[in-house]
Amino acid sequence: MMLHERLDPALLLVWAQAARHKNLHAAAQALFMTQPAVSQRLRQLQDVVGEPLYQRNPQGITPTSTGMALLRISEQIESALRSAHGLCQDRKDLLRGSLSILASHSNAETLLPQVIAQFRQHYPGVFLRLVATNSRAAREMRDQADLVFVEDRPALSTGSGWKEEMLVESTIILLAPETPHWLQLVPKPVPLQSLEAEVLVWREEDSGIHEQALQALKAAGVHPEIRYELSGLAAIRAAVRCGLGVSFVSALSDGGGLRPGLVTLKTVPRIPHHLSVLYRKESSHSTRAFLDVLRQSLGKSDKESGWQWSSLPT
């Protein structure tokens, strides 16, 4: 086909209206054009095709077999344009959107900073607000947020209007001061029963780590002395470093055991730790976009993402 014979897709869109209405006047009204303008474009299309597209009748026009074949192609073009428009509208909405996140402290301190940074690279116009709290409070206040990150297995009923998805399965480990007593135990796992005489520095009540560690201790027959209850990982580290006692933390935050004055140890039995996300079944564009970035981040290789989920202590 020569350059001057190339088919203009706009001519096919005009033909789609004419063929469906079977009337050039009605097609002109649908296209916000004059009838002579529609007739001119259809003549141009017939010149390129080389065959008649329609036959006239008292009511309007009747498409020929070639005209019907072109109508099917024209409708595919219309469908593709609708999809493209929808995609552009999604992007436009995202640029003006907002996102409210409630997260447990472990999620806010370990998982989310990198994901938020990646999200901001793709969607810099979205206003994002993150509030850190404990898992129980996050669940109870979920109606105030678009996304809720908690530290337990999915538990919501299917009829709640929310979906829940487990993101990471890790381990809760023991955080202890860097003293000869604890250093000699590394890298051996510490039996939970041996902690009966220890003073434990606890995360605040209703935190995911508090609840799961306490359940594991009670299952092992240990009823620890709860003398200190602190909020936030930084406060826990400082208290343990100062010799106030030992504590439990997520392996995601202290799995390397490289913080000055502190050591981390596995426990026997192992205490599982799960990070999950809650989101509405009818989610906004910005919510779906954040979840896409989140899943991509977790699905990348260790080298690409910087996270090493597969090699965390178990």
The largest sheet is: 7 strands, mixed
Strand proportion, as a percent range, falls in 15-25%
Mean pLDDT: 84
Radius of gyration: 31 Å
Order of helices and strands: HHHEEHEHEHEEHEEHEHEHEEEHH
Give the total of beta strands: 13
* Poorly predicted segments: 300-314
Distance between the termini: 65 Å
Question: Can you give a write-up of this model?
Answer:
44% of the residues lie in helices and 24% in strands. The protein has 12 helices and 13 strands. The strands form 4 sheets. Strands 3, 4, 5, 6, 10, 11 and 13 form a 7-stranded mixed beta sheet that branches. Strands 1-2 form a two-stranded antiparallel ribbon. α1 packs across α2, α1 packs across α3 and α5 packs across α11. The protein is rod-shaped and about 100 Å long. It starts with 8 loop residues before the first helix and ends in a 9-residue tail after the last helix.
